[in-house]
Structure formats: C-alpha cells, structure tokens
Amino acid sequence: MIQVGDKLPGATLFEFVEDERAGCTLGPNGFEVQALTAGKRVVIFGLPGAFTPTCSAKHVPGYVEHAERFFAAGIDEIWCVSVNDAFVMGAWGRDQHTAGKVRMMADGSAAFTRALGLEQDLSARGMGIRSQRYAMVVDGGVVKALFVEAPGKFEVSDAASLLATLSPS
What we know:
Layout: E1 12-17, E2 27-32, H1 33-37, E3 41-47, H2 53-65, H3 67-72, E4 77-82, H4 86-96, E5 103-106, H5 111-116, E6 119-121, E7 129-131, E8 134-139, E9 142-148, H6 159-165
Parallel strand pairs: 3-4, 4-5
Antiparallel strand pairs: 1-2, 1-5, 3-8, 6-7, 8-9
GO biological process, one term: hydrogen peroxide catabolic process
Function: Thiol-specific peroxidase that catalyzes the reduction of hydrogen peroxide and organic hydroperoxides to water and alcohols, respectively. Plays a role in cell protection against oxidative stress by detoxifying peroxides.
Protein name: Glutathione-dependent peroxiredoxin
C-alpha cells in the first residue's frame, strides 16, 4: 500500500469534460496522474462507487461543501477517484453539483487503485474490484498525508477530518 512520502504511481485517470476547451474534447478525457499533480497540492479521496449510499450522502457532499476552505488552505484541486467509468463519474458529478469544486476522476479498470494498493474485492456484493475508502494530500506528486478507512467505516477520510489536518502551504 502507498505510504506517506511515496510518489504517486504512473497511471491515467479519466474525466468526463462537459465543455470542450483547449486540450480537452467533450466527453471522456484521459489525464496522466503524475503530470496533473506536478507543482500542485491536491486532495485525492477514493471511495467504493458512484451513487452508493455513504459515498453519495456523505463523502462527496462533504468535499463539495468544504471546497472553498480547502482552496483557502492552499489546495489547488480536489479529486474524487472511483472504480467507475468516466460517463458514470460525469453523471454522478452533475448529480452532486461538483463543477468547479471536485474533479470526478474515473479509474474504470482499477489500474490506479491497484497501483496504490488500495483495492478491495466486493465481488460477493456484486460490485467486483473497487477502491477502499481513503483520503490523501499530495504535494507535487508525493503523498504528504494518507488516511485509509477500516472496512465499513467512515471516520477519517471525510472532508472535515482531512481539512482539520491541513495547514496552508
């Protein structure tokens, strides 16, 4: 499992882009994790799945609600990573009103999640390989803080708990 002080693994995450702009077409676009975090302070939180109860009722809404406080504390971006495809993550982002606050990053094949060592097998529940619930602070591609939930818990990866650990850069 990734640890504090480790560099993020090389991987591509996908984001559904709503508005065509320079370098991005409408629809799913791939982004290299290492390039996207270079020179930035990023909060990345992972969760088991889009539209699931705790993820939709508590995890994402907390980061949306506290986004401005994260930005004021020196965070450049907030990413939600889930083992779902970019279309699902885009729809979930619209449903959760994440625009301008949280980037909804798809890890459809779980490549990034596996490289982090944060996968879990939820096949018995019909969900296949998914992400554990976690939150991390990354500075220039290096993990500076990491909080991984115990199975079935939601106590350390929520927005308020992570925000309490931050100091301005």
